[in-house]
Amino acid sequence: MNPLVLQIIQMLATAEPAIIQAIHNLMNGTGTADDIAILVGDQAAWQSIAEKAQQEIDKLKPPQPAPPPVS
Hints:
With 71 residues, this protein is an all-alpha fold. Helices cover 75% and strands 0% of the residues. The protein has two helices and no strands.
């Protein structure tokens, strides 16, 4: 299996309960700085995965021809 897919599955399996709890706490007014830190950390991790995924997608795109020289 693709390592990127495994990383996404691992993040969901380990982080999802914490994320749900953090959002719940913040929405109920009982959130703490720890809840915000959980969400900020998760956002950074997902951004990293999105960037890696975009790099893989870009590898699959055919190369663009060079523009003609300007005279």
